[in-house]
């Protein structure tokens, strides 16, 4: 049978019908993403994000765990600080920063047909923006180890959009690889443009990461 390539392409069930690629899954993925973002916006700006709701943010299955207890201790200290601020006149009614939050989304730009359909041209381009195109499927898009070839279509797509972008760096990456990726994705050295995401495993990180960090630092990235 064909490989399972994710719900946006085909199904995980071990049958020919499930493994057949279905373009309608792209539309369902878009609808599910839009619904999720709408829910997050409602929570972020509808009062649930208010710092005074701290004690409502933990679910029952976490509450009795050691992590839940540590969270409650921290929430208690924050509540005390909020009470002090309220006594000084700083309340969530007067300060939007206490009752609302901004949030940003990110995902792997794996399915280029999906990303292409959601790419939009910016009408007003700030002087600091290198490209007038924006990937509207997420605020930040990133590439994995298997799709970061310099001559590949995924790199070509990411280098042509104005979003912040990321690329995963594994244990086999060399300083030359990292610098070449930085040159391709962020030639203007724009602050905040490129994020290098390490995925080396705890056992190799101490050996593999320092040479890459040194190369990036020495290159002024």
Short key terms for the protein model shown above:
221 residues; 4-stranded parallel β-sheet; two-stranded antiparallel sheet; 42% helix
Q: How is this structure best described in words?
A:
This protein is of the alpha/beta class and 221 residues long. It has 3 domains: 1-45, no CATH class; 50-98, no CATH class; 106-218, no CATH class. Helices cover 42% and strands 10% of the residues. The protein has 8 helices and 6 strands. It has helices spanning 16-19, 24-45, 60-63, 66-87, 112-117, 153-159, 175-185, 202-218, and strands spanning 106-108, 119-121, 133-135, 140-143, 165-169, 194-198. A 4-stranded parallel sheet has the order 1-4-5-6, with helices on one face. Strands 2-3 form a two-stranded antiparallel sheet. β4, α6 and β5 form a beta-alpha-beta unit. α7 (175-185) packs across α8 (202-218).
> Can you list the strand order of the major beta sheet?
1-4-5-6
**In angstroms, what separates the terminal alpha carbons?**
45 Å
Query: How many domains, as an integer?
Result: 3
Large-scale geometry: globular
Written as H for each helix and E for each strand, in order along the chain, the element string is: HHHHEHEEEHEHEH
How many distinct helices?
Answer: 8
- What's the mean pLDDT score? 88
Overall number of strands = 6
Q: What is the SS-derived class?
A: alpha/beta
Estimate the strand proportion: 5-15%
The main β sheet shows up as: 4 strands, parallel
Helix fraction by DSSP (H/I, runs of at least 4): 40-55%
What Rg do the Cα atoms give? 22 Å
């Amino acid at each position: 049978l064909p490989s399972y390539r994710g719900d946006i392409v085909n199904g995980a069930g071990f049958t020919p019908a499930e493994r057949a690629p279905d373009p309608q899954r792209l539309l369902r993925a878009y609808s599910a993403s839009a619904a999720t973002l709408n829910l997050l916006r409602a929570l972020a700006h509808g009062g649930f994000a208010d710092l005074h709701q701290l004690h409502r943010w933990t679910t029952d299955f976490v509450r009795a765990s050691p992590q839940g207890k540590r969270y409650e201790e921290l929430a208690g200290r924050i509540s005390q600080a909020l009470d002090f601020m309220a006594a000084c006149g700083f309340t969530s009614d007067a300060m939007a920063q206490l009752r609302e939050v901004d949030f940003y989304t990110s995902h792997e730009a794996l399915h280029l047909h999906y990303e292409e359909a959601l790419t939009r041209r910016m009408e007003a381009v700030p002087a600091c923006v290198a490209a007038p195109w924006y990937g509207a499927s997420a605020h930040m898009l990133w590439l994995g180890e298997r799709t970061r070839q310099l001559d590949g279509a995924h790199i070509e797509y990411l280098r042509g959009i104005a979003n912040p972008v990321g690329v995963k760096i594994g244990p086999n990456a060399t300083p030359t690889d990292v610098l070449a990726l930085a040159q391709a994705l962020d030639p203007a050295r724009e602050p905040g443009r490129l994020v290098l995401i390490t995925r080396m495993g705890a056992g190799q990180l101490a050996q593999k990461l320092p040479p890459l960090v040194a190369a990036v630092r020495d290159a002024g990235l």
